[in-house]
Structure formats: C-alpha cells, structure tokens
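Two records follow; treat each independently.
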Amino acid sequence: MLLEGKIAVVTGASRGIGRAIAATLAAEGATVVVNYQANAAAAEEVVSAITAAGGRALAVAADVSDTAAAEGLIKAAIDAFGHIDIVVNNAGTTRDTLLLSMKEEQWDVVLATNLKSVFNVCKAAARPMLRRKQGGRIINISSVSGIVGQPGQTNYAASKAGIIGFSKSLAKELGSRGITVNVVAPGFVLTDLTAGLSDELVQQTLGYIPLGRWGQAQEIAHAVAFLASDRASYITGEVLRVDGGIGT
C-alpha cells in the first residue's frame, strides 16, 4: 500500500470528491481524519465505510474558514494519532452568478471557504510537520476554472487561482524541509453538487471536453493518492490537471 502508516487530514471529506479522497487514502493504508462542517451523519458514514474495509478513520467537525477551528482540527488529529503526514485541502463551495449580479456576501463566502481555509489549515499543519522533521505532503484542490475561468464564476475562479499561487509559493518555503506542496485541478466531475445540472448544460460541456465525458470523483482521488505517496517525492509546486483535457 502506498500510504501505509501515514496520517492524513482531508477537509470537506463528508461527500463528493472529498469522500472519495478519504476512502482512497485509507485504502492505500493511511489513517484518515475526515473533516466536515455540518453533516455529521455523512461524515460518520465515511468513517464507517473506511473501518468496515479494515482502515482507521476519525470524523472531526470544523469550519476551516475559521482560523481557530482549523487549528483545532489539526490539534485533534495530532491528539488522536500523534502526528500528521498528509494534508488535503478540499473544502469548497460555489455561489455562481454573473459579476454584475454578484453580492458581496457571495464573493466573501466563496473566498473564505475555498481560499482562506487553505491558508488556515496549511499554516496550522506546517508547524507540527516542521517540528517533526519527517517531511510531509500537502495537496490543495483547485479547479480548471482557476486556470481558464468560467462565466458566472469570478468568485470561484479567483479562489481557485489563488490556491495555485499560494501553493507554488508555499512549495518554495517548505521544500528544504522535505514538505511537498502540490495542486490537483479537477474539471467537470460527477458529484452530488453537480447532479442538479440540466441535461442541456451537461451536453454543452461535453462538446469541449476532449475525452468526451465528465470525470469521476475516484479519478481525482487517485491523483491525490499519487501526490501523497513517496512515488511523488520529487514533485512540488506543480498543478496536476485531471480534467479530460478541457484545460489544454
């Protein structure tokens, strides 16, 4: 197993891509802290699925856009398991609308949930990683929207582009201590968040995806597991697009 003996924290792990990431890291041998904000039942379902398959997991509630809560999440992980090796920042939200109709609250909540949370969790996790002197892996989930943009997503695209710039800078700050920082940028992925989109809209997107289909959450999770493993030990500051070619 790629991650045997590792301790991983995955934010926004109660559903969708985050849930797939948590399950995949656990299947590769990692003990997983399943972070969630509000849906305790869904988070416990993830934990139950992991433990039923022979893995170890713990659900921890925290709104990681809040600095103290993010620090509490990392402390809870260390208190439970002694240290952390892997951090995956996946927590995110959308408030899609055209700029001229966008309210300040729609901008603020997306930037806080998607970008400030990455700052909060990385800062909280980097300190114990550095003290332990065993290196580590940080993987931040961006989006193809942060690379090519999408109409109606100025807030979302700004937050996801910010994650890329943040990660490249942090990779330079932490690289000398053996901590890698990379980004996974998904394209259109089938999750419960996208299930409500109209068939017409889905068909429109298929026209400019070279592979001709939407991605699966598991395909994003496999990319994250690779970057979290020793097989990616010489990769840092990179953006791995898992988007069916849409960002090409």
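The next record belongs to a different protein.
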Amino acid sequence: MASIFSRIVSGELPAYKVAEDDQHLAFLDITPLVEGHTLVIPKREVDYIFDMPAEELAALHLFAQRVAKGVAAAVPCRRIGVAVIGLEVPHAHIHLIPMNKVADMNFANPKIKVAEDRMKELAAAIAAKVPGATNGNPSAPAPLDSKGSRETTEANEPATTAAADGSVAQLQQLTKGLVFMSESEAPLEPVSYAAPAGELTDAAALKLLGEPTDAKVETQELTLFLRNHTADNGVLGDPAQANRFKALQMFMKQDLQDTKVYRIGTGPQVKVYALGKTEDGKLAGFKTVLTET
C-alpha cells in the first residue's frame, strides 16, 4: 500500500507544496510544531532514510539545504532545526523546523493548528525564497516578490506615481482593502519616498512627509503597532483579515530594512506612517490614521 507521502507525490492527496524537482518534494507539515514546519521527502518511496543509496541520500540533503534557506528567509527564526524521526510515516523524510529555542524541536510538544489561508500564505512565502525551486502548489496565492527577482527603478516620486517600483507594487497588493481599526477606521495606503541622506531623524521625517516641523513624532515597532490586527481573529473576528495583516507585517519586516512606525501629531487623529528601506534605497510602506480620544 502506498504511503501517505507517495499519495501526495502522485497527486491523490493535496499538500501545501513549497519546492519540487524530479526526485524530491517539500511541503508544509499539516500538524506542525511551529509555523513553517516543513517536510522534505524523496519521491521514490523508501521506508528508512539510511537504506537509501549514498548518492540519493546526499541528493536529498542537498535539496533539503535549499529548502531550509527558503524557510529561513520566509519565517522569522534564529535557526532551522533538522530532525529525522522515521517512525511516523513509512516513507523517508526530513523535518525542517524554524526555531528560536531548543524547546521548539521537542516532538512531545502539542502540535499547533494553522488556518488554511495562513498555510497557503506560508507556502507561497517559502516557495518564493527557495533558491532555484519551483512552487508546485497550484492552490497557493502568487508568491511575494523576492529581492533577487525584483527590478529596480529610478523613480523617486511617491507611491501614486511609482507604479513600476517593485516594493510599492507588492505593498499595493498587500494593503488592498485593509482597514486599520481604532476608534474609527482608516484605509492603509501604500507610499514611497526618496530616502534622505544620512539618518532619518524626526526632523528629516517631518520634512520628508510634508508634515509641520513642530509636530510631535513618536516611533513604534511595527509588530506592536499591528498586534491587535495580527491576532488570531484580528479586531474584526475575521481570521482571513488577520492573516492578511500577518502577510503585510512579514513582508515589511523581511523585505524592507529598519522598518519603523512614525506616529505624527497629538490627536484626536494621529497620522501614522510605517516605513522601511527598499533594496534600491527608497523608503516604502503604508500610511493610515489612528483615532484616539
């Protein structure tokens, strides 16, 4: 009887695939220890990994190395843990587990439940970062642009006139239809600016954004600013919307550098700009309004 993994290889069963070649397949574990937990298998069914011929075993590990680089680039973590257990499924496989502490690798930990939309998002993000791999998951959304594939542009105008800017195009996709909820609601609008020379001081930020020079400026970490919107059900009780905010947060923290949130003004309506440096030296992100009474 074919193993469950062989049934995935044949297409009989679905999977959140992240990479594939003629001999190997990588896909997300549907009962993961942590988000991004990935399985790497040979397509040829072999029960015990160390029964594989040396050349096949070496090729499997080289493929796993490429997948691990994709996982590390897409999922915030300190290292990618590697494990071979060999008791769960009679088909050789390698576990790649994003980890921040040793306990993340403990298979006695309760498995987590990850929503389908989030699994698709993770699969697409990892697939986009695997060097030289093909995303074999037809059900996943289009992968996020990778730094390696993004075309640079010489345009330094704001986002409304910088449609050719890869980062802004991605931000337009990620923010489309998203609304920041405070005591009122405000849309998220993608923006792009020419970065000033040197450090982005409060004074430089106010000048860049066209705000009054005496306006109050507070900076905040993006994760903290979006914490209510990236919670499991978000502020609207909608997991799909929460997952979209998570995707936006992931993009801004990984594809942009030194991302910060600038809160400008004293209320009741505070202008908010979330900005980070693009690979070609611009500032990009989104703006919205926070209402505080």
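Discussion point: The first strand starts at residue 17 and ends at 20. How would you locate this feature using only the token line?
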